[in-house]
Write a structure and sequence with these properties.
The protein has 326 residues and is α+β, with helices and mostly antiparallel strands. The chain folds into 3 domains: 65 residues, no CATH class; 158 residues, 2-Layer Sandwich (Ribosomal Protein S8, Chain: A, domain 1); 40 residues, Hypothetical oxidoreductase yiak, domain 3 (Wheat Germ Agglutinin (Isolectin 2), domain 1, 2-Layer Sandwich). It is built from 10 helices and 10 strands. The strands form 2 sheets. A 7-stranded mixed β-sheet has the order 1-2-3-10-4-6-7, sandwiched between helices. A hairpin with a 2-residue loop joins β1 and β2. The radius of gyration is 20 Å and the shape is globular. The two termini are 22 Å apart. 46% of the residues are buried. The mean pLDDT is 93.
Length: 326
Amino acid sequence: MQEARDLMAEACRAASVPRDQTDFVIDHYLAGELRGKPSHGLAKFCFESQFFAHRQGPPRIVRERGALAIVDAQREIGPISARFAATAATHRARQFGAGIIGMINTQRYGILGQWSEQIAAAGLIGLVMNTSRAESTVHGARTPALGVNPLSIAVPTKGEPFVADMSTTLAPMGTLWEARRSGDRLPPDCFVDDHGAFTDNPATAASAVVFGEHRGFVISVLVQLLTGSLFGFPMSTDVDSTWRTGYTFIALDPSLGGEFTEFTASNTRLIDALRAMTTADGTAVRLPGQASRRRAARTQSAGTLTVPDAVYERLVARASGDFNHL
């Protein structure tokens, strides 16, 4: 694992990432790898690092009204701009009972859960989501019209926050991008070709498929609206670049509903009830985020990471200052 950190640090140095931000950026992408989400881990770092040097300045609030504000991230590195937006949402929630931040013109980050968890660590309900180019379609269709529209929620408890981090597609687009680089097959029934037929061939896959048929369709549309028209950001095929992609960070203060001291206790009782659920064979039901936390703990304890050869080669190239090796 230390070798991965060292290579990432060299890549950040080559891309002129500020020294005081380097460890934070590395930790963010390593967290995706440790939690078993390689499409949002080292592979994502290798892809996104080609844009690190494009940053134009620190994120800034350019429009605000009450609980709502819009952030121009000025093409800041994704984890850095996301931390800014999550912090801004928290501050507004303290002032208005809710903080709703729309952000645009930013580089991308890895896992969403870190930002909703940051909000929950402040004793608030956190919701984080973003859109993308029109890269997903719904069950039975072939035309991409929605972003992949991932969503994360987090609530504070007496212990660790309860965090759920999910895509509204059956598989993230990062899976397709990595399969195109590696030549691996795609997971079955997650992507369709131009004719709407399921395919595991990365060369012919054209769209990710939204989960849950029409129920998932509704959730994806909701995320699209909350990362788009709510702030006047582009949606669907109008999202034509990374810089025109919308991100939303929401913080909700429970005191708005009169809940002060019992909020985390109530949440803890709910999570305890969920943990008490069992399957038909008597085993405990797995809660969202549970498996990824356990996986991260095991990997950190072992101190080693298993990285595909193709990803390792790209990481070595980035460390040498080569940001064109794909």
